[in-house]
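> Could you send the Winged helix-turn-helix transcriptional regulator prediction when you get a chance?

Sure thing. Input:
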Amino acid sequence: MVDAVKPQGCTNLKLRELSRVVTRHYDAHVAPTGLKNSQYSLLSHIVLLGPIRPGELAARMRLDASTLTRNLQPLVAAGWVEQGPGEDARSRSVVATEAGRAKRAEAQRAWKHAQLALNARLGNERVAALHALLDECLAALEEGETDDE
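Output:
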């Protein structure tokens, strides 16, 4: 069966353009808390999942280990995250400090304003459809990755 629709343009370019615009939107809301959007996301994952091994955190966030290490450094330097020993002598653990939990709560309020503003601008129905489409695409691409191995 031949597809009746033929996509035009580069999907990667379109996704990157959308990502940059959406990131700027969230950064504008979250920046007054002293965090970048990516730092808020990382801190949120650590608060919700920690204490957690760096490798597991990277996998959960779909990041490679070097990106995670680089992104953790400012959070550790600010005192919002601590890295310590893990379950055994060979492992490490990442955990949010009390200051990190407070910073995450502050940033979460700013993030919520960003989300509501984006929903208002795009419309709740369009945002829900976008989320569903992105989830479907992620699942299909991840399924393809395991088939390729």
